[in-house]
Design goal:
The chain has one domain (5-72). The radius of gyration is 18 Å and the shape is elongated. It is α+β, with helices and mostly antiparallel strands and 83 residues long. The protein contains one helix and two strands; from the N terminus they run E-H-E.
């Protein structure tokens, strides 16, 4: 990869992803009355388990989410983050 790509940005979203998953769970719970006829109880339990167990994994720091931005060597540097 050296000489082909330049790493422009490297960010760990893990510390914030717990909150993201909990917000998704809350939205899912609020919307469930409109979704339950289409998806049923099995989907409800599976999705709730996924969202909450994933949030727990991020909270315990046993899971991480990284974003790495590369550009081709010689390409103008993109704006990766606005602080």
């Amino acid at each position: 990869m050296e000489g082909i790509f330049v790493m422009e940005d490297w960010h760990n979203f893990g510390p914030y992803y717990d909150n993201t998953l909990i917000a998704w769970h809350d939205n899912f719970e609020k919307a469930w009355s409109k979704l339950k006829e289409k998806y049923g109880g099995r989907f409800y339990r599976m999705w709730k388990y996924y969202l909450l167990s994933s949030a727990g994994g991020f909270r315990a720091r046993s899971q991480q989410l990284w974003q790495i931005v590369f550009t081709r060597f010689g390409t103008p540097q993109p704006v990766c983050r606005i602080s």
